[in-house]
């Protein structure tokens, strides 16, 4: 496992739902980064999945799952 | 990551369950948009997945996961 | 997004668990309908996935996720 | 949608965790049944997925998701 | 459905998180066993999926979902 | 099932969200390890999935699901 910061800022708390969505995207990407530390290889893979609708849908599911946790941590910004 | 608004209106709160479903769909689409900012490429992908039943089912799963969070944020509109 | 009613009756509340399952199925189908408004195309896809066991299993997962939300909204009909 | 009973006994309550697992399996199967009412076709599909490890794993995921709801409905049989 | 015990010991309660993980694995395997009662066929499938990284990842997802329920049933062993 | 420690340290509690993410990754890997005890085979599979974007996305989903449980166990480190 590469030496990657997995939670930017070290907290699941965000000021807004908008920032919570951005955090969910980052959380998902940092898992990819720690598993595949080679930046060129990650760029190569991104070119593949960003043009593949099935992979894009699967990527969206991952972010949705991460966001569920971030949203609960923030009590849904109520 | 493109400069895309990820949560329309900045809140998970909606007046009704109907609006909550619509928000869940938008949340899912905005993740796609921020990952693939090219509108023509998104249209190309949409033509593919909207005619592919396996992808349509996967897309429905993503919306269902997003909706679980939106519904919890609204205490299920009770 | 087509002009489709996404939550029949506008509420996640149902009288029974049986009706809750039926609602979960409808919720999943209405997401498909709003994404693919062409009824003939939906029928074509249904003929494909209803004879494909992998797609049937995936469809079942979608309904299970929708039902989790419906059941929570109804406090599990206790 | 075929006229299928979707929740056997009409309730998510079971006496034991063992019965809760059995209910989760039944719930998953009844969604398949209502989507594909032809018993011969369901048998044909079962022969396919029961010999395909990827489909068996996916089937297991569906049951796990259904069980999460059944278990919550029963307060985990505590 | 084969006559298989679906919940070893009849309870989701375990003394430790370690035992909870082991239970989650067993729960997932027992669903496979009740769906495919033929031990030789299960061994054949296991040889396939244990050497297939995509199936191994999917298997891990199933266990993660089962574990979420087991962990909640044990109040996370706090 | 190989004799593998499934929960490092025996607890879902971590001091920080950062450590919680690392634990989620480890939990996912230990399920793989107990299912496929051969280290060379795991390395072979890792070389495959770490260069396959679809598998990387699926791996990320598994970690996201594990993390949801770890985060709940830690009350989101609030």
From TrEMBL, chains A, B, C, D, E, F:
One Pfam assignment: HTHP
Organism: freshwater metagenome
Name of this protein: Unannotated protein
Phylogenetic classification of the source organism: unclassified sequences, metagenomes, ecological metagenomes
Gene3D superfamilies: Hexameric tyrosine-coordinated heme protein (HTHP)
